[in-house]
Amino acid sequence: MQRVKLDAIDRKILAELQADGRMTNVELSKRVGISAPPCLRRVRALEEAGLIEGYHAQLSERDLGFDVTVFAMVGLHSQAEADLRAFEERVDAWPLVRECHMLNGEIDFILKCVAPDLASFQSFLTESLTPAPNVAHVRTSLTIRRSKYDPGVPVDMMEPPVEA
Predict the structure, then answer these.
(1) CATH C-level class of 68-142
(2) Spans of the chain below 50 pLDDT
(3) What is the tens place of the pLDDT at every residue in 119-135?
(4) Contacts of 121 (CB under 8 A, 6+ apart)
(5) What are the CA-CA distances from residue 158 to residues 49, 55, 80, 138, 155 (Å)?
(6) DSSP assignment of the chain, as one string?
(7) Can you give the pLDDT at residue 164?
(8) What is the pLDDT of residue 8?
(9) What are the start and end residues of each CATH 1.10.10.10 domain in the chain?
(10) What pLDDT, on a 0 to 100 scale, did the predictor assign at position 2?
């Protein structure tokens, strides 16, 4: 996939929307220093290019009763592509798993799981994850606290296009 060339205004739009996806187009245009119609055209172009994948609300896990966050490191018996896809499809059906990343090295996948309590996570671990087909071993780490949460990408580090 070819990279889209972004100018300084595009990068500002991305940074502002990443920080607050609910702002109006008028507010966004003021923040990036252009009028509303071209701002809206740029946002739509960024969406169509796939650079903006969607908008969502950031929910408070703890306030909603999800007090437990666990990272599960999963090793598989087979790393054949069909077996990897089958595991990913199974993971997609588990609501407690919020993120799944395939890794390079000793661990095949790391799963970020949230649960209301340890008993709920333990049930998931012993009844769903560990006995799942192709799972060789699972190691878990319970989080104590989250010291940083900064979703998205560091837009301010994006390089401007090279002038010819």
Answers:
(1) alpha beta
(2) 1, 162, 164
(3) 999 999 999 999 999 99
(4) 68, 70, 96, 113, 115
(5) 17, 21, 35, 37, 5
(6) -PPPP--HHHHHHHHHHHH-TTS-HHHHHHHHTS-HHHHHHHHHHHHHTTSS--------TTTTT--EEEEEEEEES---HHHHHHHHHHHHT-TTEEEEEE-SSS-SEEEEEEESSHHHHHHHIIIIITTSTTEEEEEEEE-S-------S--GGGPPPPPP-
(7) 46
(8) 92
(9) 8-57
(10) 55
pLDDT for the residue numbered 104 = 95
Instruction: Count how many residues are written for the chain.
Output: 164
Task: Give the strands of the sheet with 68-76, arranged side by side.
Answer: 97-102, 109-115, 68-76, 135-142
Instruction: Dig out the tokens for 80 from the structure.
Output: 């054949």
Longest dimension (CA), the chain: 61
Q: How far apart are CA 106 and CA 69, in angstroms?
A: 22
Total-model pTM: 0.83
* Rounded CA separation 137/109 (Å): 11
What tokens appear for 4 in the block?
Answer: 């889209």
Q: Does domain 8-57 have CATH number 1.10.10.10?
A: yes
**Phi/psi at 101 (nearest 5 deg)?**
-130, 130
